[in-house]
């Protein structure tokens, strides 16, 4: 996908473009220490109209791990994801990816840094076939035959329904199959970070188990994942690290295994036990 040209070099749009271009070049060429987090939010505030939704979010996503973002409904989890992706602009604080500031970048530029986002509504095109949905997400391919065949076969093993319904309209898929397609679109090309909002929502137990198996394989491949989830058993089986939100803030961060073993802390933070 070609990058848009700024209107003028001195305009705010032009400055944002120049910043994105520089970040893109550096982020893709500079080897960073494995100990440095892939994604860091510090003191992030987000306003939506007159509403102050995020109140100083601090969040760390380590490299090569699956980080769970938990919390009650309305805690600010989805707003955090949307703010990371530039869909809503942070009004204060900073967001750093691969060691570089992305706080003021626009969504296409953030996605161009090899971050894939699967929103809660899955973001698939119902009138297009599964193949056409996948092709749209494969930025380096202009035709289906140009997609990476080895990677497609890997995806088909993760999500057999994607191959089975390859030429079917995406709108005809079940809820679980649509979710599998949404994740498949996100990984059709190698990504440094996957950001996924509630992948198990509304799925039957057998579909949830299939999704867990797929995420375990993704983790084993070294992909870094930030995942919002309401299904606590899903979180317990997959999470390496965890952050719990309440009222627009991160109120707990640490090991998923430690939280899973501390029922008193679970009830305090989430109102239930894992």
Quick structural overview:
The chain has 274 residues and is α/β, with parallel strands linked by helices. The protein is built from eleven helices and ten strands. A six-stranded mixed β-sheet has the order 6-7-8-3-9-10, with helices on both faces. Strands 2-1-4-5 form a four-stranded antiparallel β-sheet, with helices on one face.
- Hey, roughly how much beta strand do the residues contain? 15-25%
Mean pLDDT: 86
N- and C-termini, Cα separation: 43 Å
Structural class assignment: alpha/beta
Could you explain how this protein is built, in words?
By secondary structure, the chain is an alpha/beta fold. The protein has helices spanning 12-29, 77-84, 107-111, 130-137, 149-158, 160-164, 175-186, 205-220, 232-238, 256-261, 263-270; strands spanning 39-48, 51-61, 66-71, 90-97, 100-101, 115-118, 193-197, 224-228, 241-246, 249-255. The N and C termini lie far apart (43 Å). The chain has a 6-stranded mixed β-sheet with strand order 6-7-8-3-9-10, with helices on both faces. The chain has a 4-stranded antiparallel β-sheet with strand order 2-1-4-5, with helices on one face. Residues 1-21 and 23-30 have low confidence and may be disordered. 38% of the residues lie in helices and 23% in strands.
């Amino acid at each position: 996908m070609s990058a848009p040209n700024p209107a003028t070099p001195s305009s705010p749009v032009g400055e944002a473009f120049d910043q994105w271009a520089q970040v893109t070049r550096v982020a893709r060429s500079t080897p960073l220490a494995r100990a440095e987090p892939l994604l860091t939010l510090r003191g992030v505030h987000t306003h939506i109209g007159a509403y102050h939704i995020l109140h100083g979010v601090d969040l760390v996503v380590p490299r090569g791990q699956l980080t769970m973002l938990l919390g009650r409904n309305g805690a600010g989890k989805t707003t955090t994801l949307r703010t990371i992706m530039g869909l809503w602009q942070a009004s204060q604080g900073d967001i750093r990816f691969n060691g570089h500031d992305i706080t003021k970048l626009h969504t296409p530029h953030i996605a161009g840094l090899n971050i894939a986002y699967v929103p809660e509504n899955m973001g698939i095109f119902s009138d297009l076939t599964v193949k056409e949905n996948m092709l749209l997400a494969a930025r380096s391919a202009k035709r289906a035959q140009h997609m990476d065949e080895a990677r497609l076969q890997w995806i088909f093993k993760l999500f057999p329904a994607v191959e089975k319904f390859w030429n079917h309209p995406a709108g005809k898929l079940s809820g679980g199959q649509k979710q599998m397609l949404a994740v498949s679109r996100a990984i059709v090309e190698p990504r440094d970070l996957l950001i996924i909002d509630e992948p198990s929502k509304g799925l039957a137990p057998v579909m949830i188990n299939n999704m867990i198996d797929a995420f375990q394989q993704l983790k084993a491949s070294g992909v870094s994942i930030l995942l919002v989830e309401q299904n606590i058993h899903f979180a317990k089986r997959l999470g390496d690290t965890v952050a719990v939100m309440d009222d627009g803030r991160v109120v707990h961060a640490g090991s998923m295994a430690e939280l899973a073993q501390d029922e008193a802390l679970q009830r305090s933070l989430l109102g239930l036990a894992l």
